[in-house]
Amino acid sequence: MDERARHLLKSLIEQHIANGVPVGSRQLARDAGLNISPATVRNVMADLEDEGYLISPHTSAGRIPTHVGYRFFVDALLRVVPLSAESNRLLVHRIGFRAPDTEQVLHAATGILSELTHMAGFVRVPRRATRILRHVDFIALHEREVLAIFVTDKGDVENRLIRTEHPFGTAELAQAANFFNATYGGRPLQDVIHNLQRDLQQSRHEMDRILRSAMELGEEMLEEDQQRMLIEGEFQWLDLPELAGSERLRELLAAVRQKRDLVHLLDESMRGSEVRLFIGEESGYAPLSDCSVVSAPYSVDGEVVGVLGVIGPMRMPYQQIIPLVDGTAQLLGRALSQS
Amino acid sequence: MDERARHLLKSLIEQHIANGVPVGSRQLARDAGLNISPATVRNVMADLEDEGYLISPHTSAGRIPTHVGYRFFVDALLRVVPLSAESNRLLVHRIGFRAPDTEQVLHAATGILSELTHMAGFVRVPRRATRILRHVDFIALHEREVLAIFVTDKGDVENRLIRTEHPFGTAELAQAANFFNATYGGRPLQDVIHNLQRDLQQSRHEMDRILRSAMELGEEMLEEDQQRMLIEGEFQWLDLPELAGSERLRELLAAVRQKRDLVHLLDESMRGSEVRLFIGEESGYAPLSDCSVVSAPYSVDGEVVGVLGVIGPMRMPYQQIIPLVDGTAQLLGRALSQS
DNA sequence: TACTAGCACTCATGATGGTTGAGTGCCAAG
DNA sequence: CTTGGCACTCAACCATCATGAGTGCTAGTA
């Protein structure tokens, strides 16, 4: 592909992103800034179509980029623009400092992504596998109900109601908690569960039921975030002419609710440390075949623990979306790290 | 309105609920089971229209009920059917027993409401104003970060990160927590905050900052649920021909996200203890003017603490929705009460 | 008096067909 | 290699028309 073809492709995709309609040879010839006739442009376009970068919806429409075209565009032609001062200010304002509650920051990040991009924003909740158990509490709620509370070093708090066969006194529970804290406190959650599992094999104490339940709580904390993911702004898809009205939208919404495959896809993209794009069919996930996903992993205290990003139509202003997602990931990571 | 008119109105509304299209005189004359001609039916329909129960979208269409018509229908003509065994089984299975986590039960209830009705289901989170403070913990996360944890008698757990000027040791924090528990434990959250506010006026201790933050956490617990409400299944509205495509849907979605006015409306409906219906404009809330809300308050340990229900088109099968919402409220209340 | 049949009228819906204009592919000349 | 020209395609738009469901009104009937 020669320089001129690249220039035309770039111009065509930019125009299509801006207007959403197929781009014809005349308009492209005019706006590309090269002094060539529409006929010449048509020849180039025909070549680009042969090579799979473009496609025309029907004979007498202009052409639109394929996912291959978009891929070439973002890899070779795109120049990202720095985050606008306005957006940056907003980002910092909303997630720029450590909040009193993790959940709140995650929500804020999801919301701001969706707002600034006018697409659906998502945040994968931080992995807790490497979290350290800071504190455990067992609290008697009623006769035979004990509330177990786990606290990690990052300030995550999870709790669970445990029903017991026999009533436990406050002192008894405090003792159990003390034992638990002394034995397992300050160790990674994974280790705690592992050791607990082993230790419980041996003894067969009355208190075991509580400890066993506590272990299950710990397991749930690790398992839960296998699935959890915040997503917001799906309704913005209603505005998109390329999605709205069709059955595709329904599928997409259902798929997003289902989450399972989506989470899978995102976990893949947690491997690197850079912004990653899945354009159209690249995701290998049918409901997303008309969409692009822009994602970026975020790190807490130097370790990648999650991923966030946006889901929108293939036709999105990548040069702005990419730095935005990137910036959000940075800020979220910082907000969740200890100051 | 005589008996025949009532019968025709009932029949018309039932047909319209079933098919969603305006009902004409011929079809109504046939299906109503009375041996009268379409012409007679037309006369009756004209009367009903004059009285405001019906309206015709245009001259040569049939007629559809107005919100006044629906109101009369549900008040005077409707006979609710008992919950189907199938639905009941599902309900009990999903929310029929006390779950280890309040949040989970609330989510389950929202989800099942949406699934069974094919409309949007909502659950207002339980009020905590009358909750009793069971336990408080202050945990040192890092040098100058303390995590405060509140536990109520219903097993609600809330936490908050507090940044302090000076580092606190574990012992010091334990002492503060002990003091806190001894002084305020076992008292209603409202009292705790009130007293704390007073007590803090006097002393000016180093530890105050933590106590003050703890108080703020308590206040947040009370305030937070002023706003919180779970809602699920809005996307089901996309299937409804009467809503889909129009600008109304967008407004509705935006309004539901906004929540504020909605929450207001629902808090109204918490006064009674019965299922309540807001049909069309009755809600006095413009975005809902094409919708009906069926709500029922739910009680924990004999006290009304929240409300749940569904939001859908005016054209909904009330005779099934009402018992379903009612049943869900009962079950949720029981699931959240102590066994 | 209450019901019904008949009739003229309305109006959304859907099919038909013609026009327009944007856009293409191809070819031959520069 | 580029360009102007030309025939061709096709979605989109618009006007027209037929259809049929449904209405209101009136006059006749039980």
List the helices and strands and how they pair.
Two copies of one chain form a homodimer.
Chain A: H1 3-19, H2 25-32, H3 38-50, E1 54-55, E2 64-65, H4 67-77, H5 85-95, H6 102-117, E3 120-124, E4 133-142, E5 145-152, E6 157-163, H7 170-184, H8 189-202, H9 208-227, E7 229-232, H10 247-258, H11 260-268, E8 276-279, E9 291-300, E10 303-313, H12 318-336
Antiparallel strand pairs in A: 1-2, 3-7, 3-10, 4-5, 5-6, 8-9, 9-10
Chain A binds a DNA duplex (30 and 30 nucleotides) through residues 22, 24-27, 36-40, 42-43, 45-46, 56-62.
Provide the descriptors you would attach to this structure in a database record.
homodimer, 339 residues, Arc Repressor Mutant, subunit A, Beta-Lactamase, Enolase-like, domain 1, 3 domains, 5-stranded antiparallel sheet, 12 helices, 19% strand, DNA-binding
